Amino acid sequence: MAFSWPRLRPNRDKVVNEPFVANSMRDNWYQANSYYPLPFGLVSTVAESGITTIGPHSFTMPYGVIDDYALVLITRFNSNTAINLMRTKKCAVHFIEFKRSWLKDVVGLGYPGQEPEDKMKHSKFQLMDSPTPQRRYGDGRHPQLIKEAFQVYECSLDESVDYHHNKDGTSRHFILRIDNILLKQSYHSAINDGNAFMPDMPISYGFRDGGDFWFTRHRKPFVVPVPSDRGPKVEAVLYEANRIADDITWTRDAAQELTAVPKAFLKMALKGVVKKAQAEGVTEITQEFVLKVNEERKRK
Questions:
Q1: Beta bridge partners of 73
Q2: pLDDT for position 81
């Protein structure tokens, strides 16, 4: 398996001034015709025999993101994942961090034509039961989870969307409703407390050269600040406000009242308003509520 780029890399400055040249289209265009770096998910399903089986998939992409949490999954028409998902309507999508021995396992799990039992006996990934009571392994529908994953989406097939079959019969397209997002404790704390670090997720460049899957890892993530002189600042406040508590939403007018708060103190101010709303049983924070909280603070 190749894990490094060839030594002869084109010079970036030279490439900028080169002309574009049309590339003839071929099957699997994203890897045969072009460079398309992708994250990938390890999808676990329950085989007909009752065991949990794992398939790596690059095409697991967000579909519904606002009040309609869903993924698109595109897979080979006859993959184990597709066959099992059509039968059980349940799956779990896992994300792992970069570790070369894990990537070797990923490639082995993705080799087509393997029966689930044969494939899984070679896998080094450890399986565990879901912590979700309604998704316990053993009912023939809900798969086990990969212990090495740092993040898991527990999903159900949305059969209301007629999106299953490609007309040429080579792939299946599924809409997966996300029932639960599970994070290992460290990353749960990081994403909810605003800690400035990101998981070291591997990136796939796909199957190339007729015999290798290509992977890479990103360097340390860095911040590019949002320009302070562009766009309405209220959007940034509203975005941050609606991430404080799952059971409380903010109106745009309410967020507008906090646009003058310095960035360093914004989250603390938002949490203070949310805490007051929770104490009073308020589920929607309006401009009137924020003004009331501000008046009460002034009187103290």
A1: 60, 174
A2: 95
Q: What is the CA radius of gyration of the chain?
A: 23
pTM summary value: 0.79
Residue located via tokens 């509203």: 238
Per the listing, tokens 């089986």 go with 53
Reported residue count of the chain is 300
Integer CA distances (angstroms), 219 to 51, 202, 214, in order: 37, 11, 17
Would you call 275 helix, strand, or coil by DSSP? helix
3-state SS assignment for residue 238: helix
pLDDT tens column, 1-19: 445 555 577 888 999 999 9
Determine the number of helices (DSSP H) and then strands (DSSP E) in the chain: 10, 13
Summarised one tens digit per residue, pLDDT across range 71-87 is: 999 998 889 999 999 99
Tell me the C-alpha distance between 263 and 194, whole Å. Answer: 13
